[in-house]
Amino acid sequence: MTSTESAASDLQDHATLWSIGENRAGDVVSAACDALVAGLDSPGLRVLAACTRAEADYDVHDLLPEALNELGLTFYPIGSSAGQEAAARALARRMLAGELTAQEFTFRVHQRYGHELALTERLAELDDEYDILEYGDRTVEQVDAEVTAEARRLADPRISTEPTDTPS
Fold it and tell me: Which of 50, 73, 87, 138 is buried most, with the most CB atoms less than 10 Å from its CB?
């Protein structure tokens, strides 16, 4: 992936996570700045990147859709199911990049979606498994490995959004 592709992907993830309340508006502005530095450019991106942290909370909501559209990226409306799935995939990429532990990843997904989002149902079940490890015959490493496999599945957009049928 080129640096501009990577910056576009990072901006997309920050925007998606912002739309579900996982990121702050200032994180989106920082990602916009990084995208400009990496070589992405559009009028909307420049305006977004120029926001101060104080302005970000007020202006990102209005500026982000246009900036993403100009770059051919997707703006997910707050609360949309497509946005929820994209956010779960963005969190998976963060976990695989080492920004979250496997247990933090499952906790965040489970806390945000419960057992309601089909795409992340297995992750919610795995979060429950972390809570009962001391009573079962599985180890943290075994659950971590299964979480990592689920994260890889989610992080790859070519893979179906259908959850895997992995036995508990």
Answer: 87
Separation between Cα atoms, residue 70 and residue 72, nearest integer Å: 6
Distance between CA atoms of 149 and 147, rounded to whole angstroms?
Answer: 5
* Rounded Cα distance, 112 and 90, in Å: 14
Q: Are 130 and 143 in contact (CB under 8 A)?
A: yes
**81/96 Cα distance (integer angstroms):** 23
| Distance between start and end Cα atoms, the chain | 36
Largest CA distance in the chain: 57
Q: pLDDT per residue over 27-51, tens digit each?
A: 999 999 999 999 999 999 999 999 9
Burial of 39 (0-12, 13-18, 19+ CB in 10 A): exposed
**Gap between the Cα atoms of 58 and 78, Å rounded:** 15
In the 8-state DSSP scheme, what is residue 23?
S
Per DSSP, the three-state class of 83 is helix
Query: Rounded distance, CA 108 to CA 56, Å?
Result: 24
Q: Kindly tell me if the per-residue pLDDT of 1 is higher than 80.
A: no
- pLDDT tens, 91-100? 999 999 999 9
